[in-house]
Structures are given as structure tokens and as C-alpha cells.
Amino acid sequence: MPSVYLQTFGCQMNVADSNALAHEAWSLGCSFTDDPRDADILILNTCAIREKAETRVYGRLGQLKTLKRPGSRLLVTGCLAAKDREIMREKAPWVDALLGPRDYRSFKSLLTAWGVPTDSPPPETPMRLPSAEDAPDADAPAEYAHLRALVSITRGCEKFCTYCIVPYTRGPLESLPPAVIEAQIRREVRLGAVEITLLGQNVNSYNYDGLDFAGLLRRLGRIEGVQRLTFLTSHPHDFTPRVVDALAEIPTVAPRLHLPVQSGSNAVLKAMARLYTVEEYLDKVAYFRERLPGWALSTDLICGFPTETEEDFAKTLDLVARGTFESAFIFAFSPRAGTPAATMTPQVDPKEKLRRLQALNAAQNEHTRRFCESFIGETVRVLVSGPSKKDPSRMAGKTGHNLTVVWPGDGRTTYGPFVDVVVEQAYTWGLVGRVA
Ligand code: SAH
Ligand code: SF4
Ligand code: F3S
């Protein structure tokens, strides 16, 4: 039976897609390998969100060209496969096939065309998920890797923020039927998952025959066995008090919200076509803080967006310095060919973008550390992800706020899915403690 090598770049959406592709290949009898030299079929699931992401993919494609055995096939999937369909034929002609995120229905027929038989009995060995370069549980040992499951509730995005490539690579918005979502969650729980992350580029735009995201949350909040429910990502324009009210009613929902603001300047938000002002964003945050005290708010920020002046930037810096967010992912603007922002003028000088990036990171780190310090002396419930990657003599896991916690391994080889840890030290990256 053919052996498959699958590597994933990019966001959790790509990880979820990789899982689905892997499951299809497995059900046809394929096995998996971590070594590209052993594989009959190599799959690279790719990302195009920023230039750096693309560079990494092309770098890896160069390596795979020399690693792959003669006669084996190389398939590129994901957002870069959709974006660079033509370019890739020139830059990486050794790629045998491309499937963008909207083409996965043809995956099976492609495998068949490559000689994978469709009439073999289901494999006897259980499916082992292939490792994912950027996945949260990249190298988690098998007994922990399945505890957290990703479940897509929407596909695509039609917000067309002016900097973003995603609507072009993933296509228009589509909401999945609630029965399909429920069935997948139940399957994941049967396989051992205790944490479910609902996925969509903007989960708040979910709408299936009038069932909105708040309604869906209420319905999913009742599924037995889900001990932590969370979701990614929310667009502030569609994040309503109704959603906050639903979250307040669901006991298993994890106390964290990711609500990307992107900029603290209304002029920049307008140029980004984000459809809200800073004031509107802060109003929504105020209601969220009132109804859900103790939750962690995280955000995404872009600095050096075209037309961003020193004054605009100062407003973003101020928003961060005021401690609006418990954590933030901060990016320098990266022009994406074909998006409106790529040709807006004036563009910000790369050196200046870097300076702004560093200033924002420094300001946010201060608050992230303080938030972490607020847990010193407390007992936190941690979802175990296995031995720490940096120091395997220590164990690591995540709190409901999504903070990393590390504690000394005490000789135990198995932990329950959750363990209580008393926090002794706090850093920007997370917490250190001992088992309570
Ligand atoms: N759907 C999500 C975002 C997906 S992309 C949302 O709307 O929140 C994740 C983050 O990457 C974005 O929030 C944005 O901050 C960043 N990003 C997207 N395009 C970018 C670009 N061209 N340059 C820099 N950062 C970008
Ligand atoms: Fe991109 Fe905007 Fe859609 Fe998010 S909401 S995926 S940033 S276009
Ligand atoms: Fe990248 Fe596509 Fe996700 S561009 S961030 S893999 S939606």
C-alpha cells in the first residue's frame, strides 16, 4: 500500500484540512511516514498569508525535490496552491499536482489516478495523524495529540479586508450544517477529544437556515464529553452581544476570546475595510468584559499598513500600552499580489515597519507578563500536551486561558487529560509550577 508523507504549514484551518485529507488517504489503505525519502506520495499543505510563509514553502519544495524518490509524486495543497497555480509551474516544475482549498473533492480521484486502489479493505492499524509543522500539538505524543480536536464550522471568507489573500484562496463563505458539525464533534469525543476548537475565518458570520453563531454555540454547548469548547476567529464587526450572552450561558466554554483589532487608528481601519471603528471595537470589548470577567482577550495587529502615519501608529501603540489585550499576535504588513493594499500608496519603509513591530511587541509583552504573573500562587487546571519540547524532563500543557504551563515530570508516565498545577513562576511565554 502506498505510503504518504504530509507536512502542514499555516493556520489551524490548514491543520484541520490536513486531518481530513489524511483520513481519506488512510481509509483507502495508505500508511504514513515522517520521512519524505520513504514516501510514494508527498503532500505539502501550504500557506500564503505573508511573504515569509511563502518563502518557507518554496524552501521546503526545494528540499523535497532532492529528497523525493524517483517515481514518487508530489502534491501541493492549501492556500499557496490556489494563489500560485501558474507561478508554481515555473518556480517548482517538479510538483506533480496542485489542489487549492476548494479542490479537495478531487483528492480521492487524484489518488486513484496515482494508482491507489479504491477496493482495498479498511486498514487494521488505527490512523496516526501526521505531524504538522505549525500545529499547536506538532510533536505531542500519540496519547496526548488526540485530546484537542479542530472542527470547521464555516469555509471561506468574503470580508475582503484589503490586505488579505484568504478570500481569494479559500473562496466564498459557506456554513456547514449543524448536524454535520455535531456528528464530527461526537466522533472526536469518542476518539478521546476533551477540547473542541470550532474553526472559521470569521465564526460570527456562521448562518445555516437562520441558525446563527450564538444559536450554534448553545446547541453545541450541550454535547456530552466536551470539557473545553473554544473557537477561532471572530471578526469584530459580526461579534455581537448575542454571542457574548451565549458564551456566558455555556459552562464548558474556555475563558478566552480572540478578537483581531488589526489597528488602533480609524483611518487605517477604513483603508483596511475592516467595517468598524476603534470606538465600536472598544464598546464590544466593554460588554464582553462586563459579562465575562476574568476572560483573556487576544488580538492580531498589523503595523506598517500602507498610509499608516506615525500618528496612526501611535494610536495602535496606545491601545496596546493601555493593556487592552492579554496577548497579541503582531505582524508587519506584507503586500499580497492581487489584494488592494499591495498597490496602495504610500507603502511604509521595511525598516520602519520593523521598528513599529518591535515597539508593539515590547508594549504587549509587558502586559502579557503581568497577566501571567496574576496567576502566581493560584491552582490552574491544565490540559496536558505531553513532555515539554525544550526540556523533555518537564511536562507541558495549556490552561483554559490558553497559557502554556510547564511543571517537573514526577516520574509519572501518564496523566489524565487534565492536571491541577500550582503556579510558582510567570514569564511572558507562560507559567511554571508543580502538580497540586
Ligand atoms: N480570519 C482571521 C484572520 C486570518 S489571517 C480574521 O479576520 O481575524 C491571521 C492574521 O494574519 C490576520 O488577523 C492579520 O493580522 C494577519 N494578516 C493577514 N494578512 C496579512 C498581510 N498581508 N500582512 C500582514 N499580516 C497579515
Ligand atoms: Fe482575511 Fe479579513 Fe477574511 Fe480575516 S476576515 S480571513 S482578515 S479577509
Ligand atoms: Fe495561511 Fe490559508 Fe490559513 S493563507 S493562514 S493557510 S487560510
Describe how the helices and strands are arranged.
Blueprint: E1 3-8, H1 12-27, E2 31-32, E3 41-46, H2 51-67, E4 73-78, H3 79-83, H4 85-91, E5 97-99, H5 107-113, H6 142-145, E6 148-152, E7 154-155, H7 166-170, E8 174-175, H8 178-190, E9 195-199, E10 207-208, E11 211-212, H9 213-220, E12 228-232, H10 241-249, E13 256-258, H11 266-271, H12 278-291, E14 296-303, H13 310-321, E15 327-332, H14 350-373, E16 379-387, E17 394-398, E18 404-408, E19 418-426, E20 430-435
Parallel strand pairs: 1-2, 1-3, 3-4, 4-5, 6-9, 9-12, 13-14, 14-15, 18-20
Antiparallel strand pairs: 7-8, 10-11, 16-17, 16-19, 17-18, 19-20
Helix pairs in contact: 9-10, 10-12, 13-14
Iron/sulfur cluster (SF4) binds at residues 157, 159-161, 164, 166-167, 201-202, 235.
Structural features, described:
This protein has helices at residues 12-27, 51-67, 79-83, 85-91, 107-113, 142-145, 166-170, 178-190, 213-220, 241-249, 266-271, 278-291, 310-321, 350-373; strands at residues 3-8, 31-32, 41-46, 73-78, 97-99, 148-152, 154-155, 174-175, 195-199, 207-208, 211-212, 228-232, 256-258, 296-303, 327-332, 379-387, 394-398, 404-408, 418-426, 430-435. With 436 residues, the protein is an alpha/beta fold. It has three domains: 3-113, Methylthiotransferase, N-terminal domain (Rossmann fold, 3-Layer(aba) Sandwich); 142-373, tm_1862 like domain (pyruvate-formate lyase- activating enzyme); 379-435, OB fold (Dihydrolipoamide Acetyltransferase, E2P) (Beta Barrel), CATH 2.40.50. The strands form six sheets. A five-stranded parallel beta sheet has the order 2-1-3-4-5, with helices on both faces. It has a five-stranded mixed beta barrel with strand order 16-17-18-20-19. Helix 10 (241-249) packs parallel to helix 12 (278-291) and helix 13 packs parallel to helix 14. The structure holds S-adenosyl-L-homocysteine, iron/sulfur cluster and FE3-S4 cluster.
